[in-house]
Amino acid sequence: MKKILVIDDEADICMLLKRFLNKNNFEVETAQSGLRGFQLIDEFKPDLVLTDFRLGDLTGAEILVNIKSKLPHVPVLVITGYSDIKIAVNVMKLGAYDYITKPLFPDEILITVNKALAAAEEGRQPDAPQPDTRIEAAGPATESAAEPERPKGKPAAPLKLNSGYIFGESAKAKELYRQIDLVAPTNYSVIIYGESGAGKEAIAYEIHNRSARKNKPFVAMDCGAISRELAGSELFGHEKGSFTGALQQKIGHFELANGGTLFLDEVANLSYEIQVALLRVVQERKMRRIGGTKEIDLDVRIIVASNEKLLEASKNKKFREDLYYRFNEFTIEVPPLRQRLEDILLFSESFLKATNAELNKNVKGFSREVLDDFINYNWPGNLRELKNVIKRATLLTDGDYIEEKTLPFEIANFKKLKELDEDFGSGALQVSEAVTEPGAKPNLKYAVSEAEYEMIMKVLRQVNFNKSKAARLLNIDRKTLYNKMKQLEMQ
Question: Is 65 within 8 Å of 54 (Cβ atoms)?
Answer without folding.
Answer: no
